[in-house]
Amino acid sequence: MALTQAQQAELTEAQAARHETRRATVPALEAMLFTPIPVLDHGFVRVVDYMGDDGAVVQSARVSYGRGTKAANEDRGLIRYLMRHRHSTPFEMCEIKYHVKLPIFVARQWIRHRTANVNEYSARYSVMDREFYIPAPEQLAAQSASNRQGRGDVLQGAEAEEVLRLLREDAARNYDHYAWMLNEDEAGNVQDESRSGLARELARMNLTLNAYTQWYWKTDLHNLLHFLSLRADAHAQYEIRVYAEAMLKIVQAWVPHSYEAFADYRMGAVTLSAQMLAIVKRMLAGEGVTQETSGLSKREWRELMETLGRAA
Amino acid sequence: MALTQAQQAELTEAQAARHETRRATVPALEAMLFTPIPVLDHGFVRVVDYMGDDGAVVQSARVSYGRGTKAANEDRGLIRYLMRHRHSTPFEMCEIKYHVKLPIFVARQWIRHRTANVNEYSARYSVMDREFYIPAPEQLAAQSASNRQGRGDVLQGAEAEEVLRLLREDAARNYDHYAWMLNEDEAGNVQDESRSGLARELARMNLTLNAYTQWYWKTDLHNLLHFLSLRADAHAQYEIRVYAEAMLKIVQAWVPHSYEAFADYRMGAVTLSAQMLAIVKRMLAGEGVTQETSGLSKREWRELMETLGRAA
Amino acid sequence: MALTQAQQAELTEAQAARHETRRATVPALEAMLFTPIPVLDHGFVRVVDYMGDDGAVVQSARVSYGRGTKAANEDRGLIRYLMRHRHSTPFEMCEIKYHVKLPIFVARQWIRHRTANVNEYSARYSVMDREFYIPAPEQLAAQSASNRQGRGDVLQGAEAEEVLRLLREDAARNYDHYAWMLNEDEAGNVQDESRSGLARELARMNLTLNAYTQWYWKTDLHNLLHFLSLRADAHAQYEIRVYAEAMLKIVQAWVPHSYEAFADYRMGAVTLSAQMLAIVKRMLAGEGVTQETSGLSKREWRELMETLGRAA
Amino acid sequence: MALTQAQQAELTEAQAARHETRRATVPALEAMLFTPIPVLDHGFVRVVDYMGDDGAVVQSARVSYGRGTKAANEDRGLIRYLMRHRHSTPFEMCEIKYHVKLPIFVARQWIRHRTANVNEYSARYSVMDREFYIPAPEQLAAQSASNRQGRGDVLQGAEAEEVLRLLREDAARNYDHYAWMLNEDEAGNVQDESRSGLARELARMNLTLNAYTQWYWKTDLHNLLHFLSLRADAHAQYEIRVYAEAMLKIVQAWVPHSYEAFADYRMGAVTLSAQMLAIVKRMLAGEGVTQETSGLSKREWRELMETLGRAA
């Protein structure tokens, strides 16, 4: 995440600025503005702007003229009620805008969330940075044996070394060839006057999927929490989960009541199917239910036992 | 648009508040915050919050670290370019939230624009205000003879008087019966202890479509401009157009460059079909084209002549 | 739900038509096409068209060239897995289009679901039907004492009779005045040559919220199920729930595996918060948890006890 | 676009199937079902399913019980009116689903259109095909000198050969390393028992952006036409434009009236800004307007002259 001097200067200037506003402000979030939070080896998340706070959720739920109640405790209770009963529209009244630097293969997962506004750095228009994601050794996992889309044990020894070498060399070589085909450097200076250079929109196809891109990404609090519930989840791929975790910390600073309700009623919550609920009732009534007597498939039985913290 | 004393006090308090922020602020819009702009006889539009400014459009188009350029003129040029070539995503990076009071039949048109966040006052939960829209006499138009969904001449004399009387009496009577069925007043006080009172979610069905409702409505600048291009248009129904016009003034204060580009390239622009363009070329080449030689239907020919400011 | 002779003739003709197609077809749903299912006193739901079936969900989840597997059992298992783990995109690959006749106050709730395509009958363009929803006596409920947006006991005796009389008379009178203001009948015949008649877009404001409107409503299976999970829920207002229930029967005929998975993992499922789950674990471990020792609010405790089928 | 024998067999079987339906069918589109249209060197577009036809647009615009009118000519006129006046909702009533094979860098542009349903082949779950897009020599263009995101002259001689060699070798080498890291072939057979193999979700990052992916993509006719108006446009990148052109031919077979109206009022239409329209009026009045007297920037003047087919 090496910012150029010019970029660093712009951020420093923005951080120093102070304006007067009548809008709701959140000091804890203001303190984080314009400060990139490092993610992975070259990526970051930084908050560029925001609108609203916990009070805006309350205000909107009541369609009131004021901002939340005097009694902060009532606000908290209402927010928890709204979250528990999935009243989503009041949470749509807060908005946040991030600037994110991320590997292309992560961007491709991320963009599947459609209810957001996005402006991505254009490789048709500009030259891409020479930066690629190379996993840390402890992230170099084998394919999971049990889960078709998960990770297993960490690779060791010669195989791990060889994988890292290939990832590094292929990304670097492909970038060098990209630059050669462009016939210009990152600043746009022509390299070899005797050549034409390939159009940027074509040359980019030689880059690898771990090349870094960046974008502005803006969404409302409800859709952000939905995104985070999927991407901060243990089943999400590690490389997107670390972004989600950084964003969760930002949410906690921004709207602490909403964050707390989200942690209790979403992230920490479990859903029991009709069949699972019936089994829990039987167990509470003292029955010794087994997989065989449960009516559940082995897979679902294992999931239920995990949920209840019991040996399958 | 009679606010209660409590509502007025809340707005006055919000207006007096001053916070410090590092975010982009727009003084001209700050001055309008928390001040309802009257629309129709009892409605209003007021800005509750906003995010971003013209600089945010520029910043996003460039996916840059800074905020627009030092040269305001370059920003204006870029914004005009983006608007002309329908690059919509940078305009999605600004967000605005309104509190609107409006007749239900207007709300039903408005809600058709789906790319917005809405929180409406709930008539399942609360008692509706005793306010209805009654058109001003000069708005009491006959059905247009030429346009199946437009207005013609203004009604006159006895017919106009009778229409106004009916609108007034029916709305008032239906509200009174609504209140009687609820068996509670607006403050929730039971009226007749011997009766149960009808559920609010049922009693509301007796209200007329000119009853006023209110909502928080939040959207991004691109979708707002799309909404305004349809609803501030001369073909839009007058009762929604006046809301769009009030919102256009707010846009002008908020993002003056974007507003100017919108006025030039959208509101004031015309679209010529392939056939119309061919006719304009023939006319510019000196040919005296008539409807008969144009190949256009009479209707399209009339539309083209109007566009070009010529007699059909 | 009195269809005119012309409407009935069109439906009969459509029902009789047989076309040949290579697309997936669902005989059980074909049998329901063009047959309005009555809902409330004058409303209906009817399927106009559909695309895809359970096999399309499977095909899309596998991004395969074929249609589902030969082994229907494998398809069922995959669909249940997708539903359980909230993989929503395969369910978006099926689409359905309904024609619905419904009271305006129901339409106003319904339209809040934004991820759908809608074409509503235009009261700017056409004259509305003379039909209003009047609740059946057993639906004439008082406001709930415990739930701000629910219903309590059914009204009895004189109060019930008076409410029904007011609803009937006000709707009829307002419609008659609407027709008088229009100065035309439903077929568009002018009534009184000496008057101009009020524009349709204005006259409609005199109608009551229980007047019937109609629309085409089209959405994908995932968003339809989300809609149904909210509107077929016991907390939804009765007048929209009966539409949701009619649509659920259609879903069952259309995509039986998806329907079954939805019934098990959504409609019949419960969500336990982090705190609730911890309490269930304590109870399973034999601890006698009470509201006081639970750490839950009284309200949440009551909700948990209801979920578990225990006395609070 | 080499389909395996198994894939070809599945398509042949699907093509041979005939079902009976009461739904609207379009024989010209039925004939295209399950037949991949080749695009680029290894890509394709094929229609998987569809819903509705031109009659469904008319039916919906009228919210009628029947299907279009008997008079096909009236349907055509109404569809042209709807397109000209941007009444978009009736066009949302038709739906189509494609199966598309396309290079990843094209998929990244395509996915920016958010109003669609997508199911992409998962590289977390499955092994990617060994297929990459290599431009045909006549598509190997230099960067445009005048347009920051366009193409200029075609590369020649040694530079062209070298570019093609690099693209070919880098893609192939990176794929081979991807396969080595996976330690399994496309059929999932382990290659070297002594190694663990890297997780698929990690190994994919070594692929190049011209690797082919595939997805199911489903959208409604209105949003499809919007997508096509941008991507079949001369300013769109060639590699996505060829997909759009293949899809346009499908639209023409599917909804011929809508297609014709789209060609006339969108693809072949031009938009004149308020300033441009004023200039056209001056020219029609006989004035010899020049860039200097036009008030337009040089760039906009050039655009106007091109539109009017005049020398700048």
UniProtKB/TrEMBL annotation, chains A, B, C, D:
Q: Which terms does the UniProt entry file under GO BP?
A: dTMP biosynthetic process; dTTP biosynthetic process; methylation
- The protein's role, per its UniProt record: Catalyzes the reductive methylation of 2'-deoxyuridine-5'-monophosphate (dUMP) to 2'-deoxythymidine-5'-monophosphate (dTMP) while utilizing 5,10-methylenetetrahydrofolate (mTHF) as the methyl donor, and NADPH and FADH(2) as the reductant.
Q: Spell out the CDD domains in the cross-references.
A: ThyX
Q: Where does dUMP bind?
A: Q109, W110, I111, R112, E120, Y121, S122, A123, R124, R204, R231
Superkingdom in the source lineage: Bacteria
Q: Where are the transmembrane segments?
A: none
Q: Which organism is it from?
A: Roseococcus suduntuyensis
> Which UniProt keywords are given for this protein, alphabetically ordered?
FAD, Flavoprotein, Methyltransferase, NADP, Nucleotide biosynthesis, Transferase
* Complex formation: Homotetramer.
UniProt-annotated catalytic positions: R231 (involved in ionization of n3 of dump, leading to its activation)
Q: What is this protein called?
A: Flavin-dependent thymidylate synthase
> Recorded GO terms, molecular function?
flavin adenine dinucleotide binding; NADPH binding; thymidylate synthase (FAD) activity; thymidylate synthase activity
InterPro entries per record: Thymidylate_synthase_ThyX, Thymidylate_synthase_ThyX_sf
Named cofactor requirement(s) = FAD
